[in-house]
Every structure is written in structure tokens, then in C-alpha cells.
Fold each of these.
Amino acid sequence: MDYPGCSPSIMIEKDLDEVIKIENYVFKRPWTKNFFRLIISDMNNYVLSLKKGNILIGYGGYHSLNKDANFLFKKNEHTRIIHLINIAICPGFQHKGYGTFLMNRLLNSARAQKRDYCYLEARGSNSRALSFYKKFGFSIIGIIENYYPQEKENALVLGKNLLNIPSL
Ligand SMILES: CC(C)(COP(=O)(O)OP(=O)(O)OC[C@H]1O[C@@H](n2cnc3c(N)ncnc32)[C@H](O)[C@@H]1OP(=O)(O)O)[C@@H](O)C(=O)NCCC(=O)NCCS
């Protein structure tokens, strides 16, 4: 699905005030502006801001791992992996398809770079995000105990093959 008037663009410094507002609304442990600065300055990251007109309504991005960081898999089953580092849509715009639109852009970009696998971490309690990822065909590939120590909460690690699978 495409959205008229809705465009993803590479996240830049100018976006960060709006990004931080959304980040603070939607996450229990929001990232700081300085952390986002580091994220967008890393050449191995691909991070998009999603704007509707002039309003920033969401963002998301992934990190492209080096071949030698292939620690998740046996026998080099996947060699060109991405790590989805973040995705968020402003509360007033959620459940209207924008997250799906943005995720498709991210995954299609990774596919265009011949990336073959995507993984991410999500809180076990984040049922909305889990439902979102499930719709994209992600499945649980592991659990990291106490990944969110302040809440003593585990992370679910979800993964998905990127090649030969059409987008939603
Ligand atoms: C997860 C998130 C990015 C999804 O974006 P979105 O624009 O709301 O999602 P979409 O409208 O594209 O919905 C796609 C699917 O996500 C799930 N979903 C989205 N909103 C939901 C809600 N309020 N309740 C339950 N499921 C929901 C559903 O499976 C939905 O499919 P459906 O429309 O057939 O029900 C968004 O809800 C969000 O920003 N959440 C807070 C931040 C967050 O948790 N990010 C993930 C970190 S791991």
C-alpha cells in the first residue's frame, strides 16, 4: 500500500526534536537525542523519517552487519544480515498502515542491498509490536533473558528471511 503525501526520507539532525517527542511517547526507555545522533552518523545504519506533509509521524531503521558478525547462525546460513534497530509511529497515526508502509520501505531497501536476513528484539509484553512483526512473517528465534533489566523483562529475538518473500 502507498500513501499520498507521505514520504520516507533519510533521517537528519533537523528531524531529531520531532523524533525524540515520539520516542518519549512510545517507549518506556526512550533513546536520547545524542544516541540518535550516533545512530544516524553510522554509515552502516539506514534510518528513515516518515513525514506526512511537514509532520514527522514515524521513523525506523536498521544496521547492516559485517560478515564476521554472523554470530546468530550456524554454518553461515545467512551471511548478509540486518538488525532492525527501531521502528515507531506517532500514537495518533498508529494502526492506520503507516508502520507497514515504513517497514516495507526498510525491508525493500535491505533486499535491494541483497541482505538475506533480518532480526530484531522486542519486549515479550509488547503485544502490538509482536502482532505487527508476525504479520510480516517474523518468528521467534531466541530469548535474551533480562535484556531490559529495569523491568526485569526478557527480549524475544525475532527473525525473518528476506529473499524470495514478497512484501505486504
Ligand atoms: C508497532 C508499530 C510500529 C506498528 O505501526 P502501525 O502503523 O501502528 O502498524 P500498522 O497500522 O501498519 O498495523 C500493522 C499491524 O500491526 C499490528 N497493530 C498495529 N496497531 C495495533 C494495535 N493498536 N493493537 C494491536 N495490533 C496492532 C496489527 O497486527 C496490524 O495489523 P491489522 O491492521 O491487520 O490489525 C506502532 O504500533 C508503534 O509505533 N508502536 C510503539 C513503538 C514500538 O513498540 N515499536 C516496536 C519496538 S520493538
Amino acid sequence: MTTAEELHAYRHRRSRQKHSGCISMLVLLIGIGISLVFWPVGIPICLLALVIDGQRDRYHICGYCGNQLTATARICPTCKATLHKEPFWSPRRFRMIVTSLILLAILIASISILATQVPPP
Ligand SMILES: [Zn+2]
């Protein structure tokens, strides 16, 4: 047993897109385009784009050395750091949630502005 100073690190969750971002972006653009003409069809297509974007491979990494880990690892196999679960309100997660809320607000606002500009039949 060594008395070397123990390393502590967070086990960060990461995700990687399964598809290239182009597919969901293309579907989103088609959805917005159709929304301009007929929003009851266009908005589900926009939602489909978000679903495609949400399909990600999830994995964990060591917060100290960046090595990829299993979800249940307690000690990093590479740097031997003791791993802790990342707290829910980490600054990184907070930024991510705020960013997605802003993007969602912009999306809803632009769709509702566009929807009101459609001339009545
Ligand atoms: Zn490590």
C-alpha cells in the first residue's frame, strides 16, 4: 500500500452523436420549411429532428485523465483516481440546460411568429 496522495475526480458523463449532425439539421430545416406552409405537419418534423439529435452513445470519462470508463467504475484504471459521481448541478450541466432552454425558446418564438404570418385561407 502506498501512502501517495490520493487522487479524486468526477466521473463525467459524455455523449457522442450516433449520426452526423447534418441529418438532424437537414430534417429540422425541412420541418421549418414545411411549418411556413402548413405548421401541423412541419412541427412534428421539427420534433423528429430533435429525436434524431437525441440518439447518442453515452459513456463516462475520468475527470482527471479523460480515460473512458464504465458507468460503475470507482477507481480509474489509468490514473488510479478515486471517482465520484458528478453532482447534478455541475456548472457544465447548468450551462447545457440554460443553452437548451434558450434554443427551445428561440425555436418556439420563431415558429409562432412564422405561424402568425401565414395568411388565413
Ligand atoms: Zn483517470
